[in-house]
Amino acid sequence: MKFAPTAATLAVLVSLPLLCPAQQQPAPVERQLPRVPGLRVESRLVPVAVNVVDEHGAPVGGLTQDDFAIFEDSKPQKIAVFDRDSTTPLQIVLAIDASESVFVDDHLEHEAAKSFVKTILRPQDRIGVMAFSDNVDEVVAFTNNLHRIDDGLDGIQHGDATALYDAIYLASQRMTEAPLTAARRVVVLITDGENTTRHGSYDAALEQAERAGAMIYSLIIVPVEADAGRNTGGEHALIQMARDTGGKFYYVSDKRDLAPAFQHVSDDLRTQYTLGYYAPQRGADLSGLRHIRIELKDPALRAKYRLRYRTAYYANRPPE
């Protein structure tokens, strides 16, 4: 499937509600509460992946549901789902920058990506592959078939420009169009961080990622000329997006470092806790950004450990 947005079409796309309400909620799961005659109430599960690390950045295991507190817009919520074994399914889009500025040694890039897929993929997981340069191409639709993913990675074609924000936007949108129930959604980017097309924007890409509940992991390819005068705006944008969505970023100064960077992503996803709560009913409030805060209850633990998680989600579709 090929995405080839022009400036005009992107403006229209971004201005319109692209998805139906059920698709725009983060990993929507319906739960029917006890029946009252004449009344039917549904709540939506909001799953949040949480990484807990010590002062050295090492993952912290062994915590229980009782160790955590979760809040939406400063109001405490009851934790309805808790998983500390990372058994929750993963829905991942591998988004690979195929522009000439990055696509120099594609063999190392592809082998590192293939190794990552083999390491991370389980029967309950699904992975898709997108390549972006002048346009964004869906190279492989969501699958757990290793051979299809390998073939897709080998068939990526070069381009000139870098439609980075379009790639994030469309990867996030794709997850809501082909949802995997209660999955942790992840976009893994391999890129130098520069968006060189005029269509697409940081704000639109971040909003779509937040609507999909997608964590952004960026493997940022640093050019050889890594001097103080180079443009780092794109890198900083990706770093901020990773922080806002609960993901992470890694600098890669040599293509041979891609494999270790992918391993870091795999380790990070395998050591997550998953907390879930049911979004509170808000009457006529059918849209809008809601803010999440998670903390450890014990002050001693709060002093020792750091938490990383997505800090917001959209309750519903954008206002008409």
Shape: globular
C-alpha-based Rg, rounded: 20 Å
Find the count of extended strands (DSSP E, 2+ residues): 16
CATH homologous superfamily title? von Willebrand factor, type A domain
Low-confidence stretches: 6-42
- The third-level CATH topology is Rossmann fold
> How many structural domains in the coordinates?
1
- CA(first)-CA(last) distance: 29 Å
Q: Please estimate the helix content.
A: 25-40%
Amount of beta strand: 25-35%
User: Helices and strands: which structural class?
Assistant: alpha+beta
- CATH architectural name: 3-Layer(aba) Sandwich
The SSE string, one letter per element, is EHHEEEEEEHEEHHEHEHEHEEHEE
Largest sheet data: 7 strands, mixed
**Average of pLDDT:** 83
Side-by-side strand order of the widest sheet: 1-9-8-7-10-11-12
Number of helical runs? 9
CATH class: Alpha Beta
